[in-house]
Amino acid sequence: MPLLPRSLAFLWLISSVVIAKPHETIVVLTSFPESFYTPIKTAFEEAYPSINLHVLNKKTPAVIQHIAHQRSPKADLIWMSSADAMATLQDKQLIDKPVTFAWSQFVFFWHRHKLAMLGSPSPKRWEDLLHPSFYQQIAISAPSRSGTNHLLIEIILQQYGWEKGWAYLSQLGGNLATVTARSFGVREGVIKQRFTLGPVVDFFYRSALAEGHPVGYEPVPNTPLIAAQIALTRHQTRNPSSPQFIAFLLSEQGQALLSLPNVNRISLQKGKQINNQYPSPVFDPYLSAMRYHAVNALFDQLITNRLAELQTFWQQWHQIQTNQADPETKAQLDAIYKQATTVPISSREASNQDLNSILSPERRYTSTFQSVTEGWRATLSQHLHAATSALERFSGEPTQ
Fold this sequence. Notes:
Keywords: Signal. This is Phosphoglycerate transport regulatory protein pgtC. It is built from 19 helices and 10 strands. With 400 residues, it is an alpha/beta fold. The protein folds into 2 domains: 24-95 and 226-265, D-Maltodextrin-Binding Protein, domain 2 (3-Layer(aba) Sandwich), CATH 3.40.190.10; 106-224 and 284-393, Periplasmic binding protein-like II (D-Maltodextrin-Binding Protein, domain 2, 3-Layer(aba) Sandwich), CATH 3.40.190. The termini are far apart.
């Protein structure tokens, strides 16, 4: 993801700013938690006492729907850390080009005491999460409920490729203890030792460490920095003073706020240094935006709604893999693996805009949405049941 030249962005914004009138209100729609935006809001209103920031907090999918359907109150600014959600809104010409004001990165995050009890080494790459010792010890948030975690799933799909990416996620599902409704739930679950680890954004680790919790982390390798962005909406009654808040975020004062304990984001300057030292792999936010709803719906059918079946299959799989290694057995296991991990649509089909329209969250109770997802569920269940039955021939006893 290219870094926005700070000086150019700042000059452009300053040129767009008008002198604020007394008691103006700027409506900001955000997916950031209150703990993040409150110190920034307070600092801005102290610097510009004639402007009040009215901040509305919603989950990323709800932010998209709010803007797409022009719900009240009409937002002047969109403030999120989901580049593909921003790309979706920009593609629909609902917002101006997003401005990056900070960065985050994905990390593997764990409770040190619980990891030590398992006797497992700390994870350093995605494949490490598939080790049998992590059975029911990992949590992840649902991409349909968390825009940040949608990025995480897309990173896996784009790095591994469509088929291999979903195969990896299926196998990861065998080690999941739960799928949380929000990414914050992974942080809280690790801290309270409900499970051992999970992939999260780095500020969850830093805030937990600042609170004195015995936690550890490892940056997820070959993963791009996550852009925290803000954008002007395009509705006709937008407050003309709105660019002033963007300019504040890019200013020295705004960048300094990123180091506050409750904010915990990487500044533009630090992000530039990280990118220069560790070049980010290519990530296509527009591809992610094109198949946004299809990926979310497929994840729920493949992972969220099938944890028990995945746990049973992959636990049995690991036992057999340990005991069987001859070429004939390997060929049969390869066929079973393919049957268990094949998803019902191709990458090209997932990018179909008609399909993604059908799978929009606002249509989840319609017959067309139910027909598509129920068809996927039936196909996935049939494949996994057949694969599980095939494994029984190797183990000599039915899986539980």
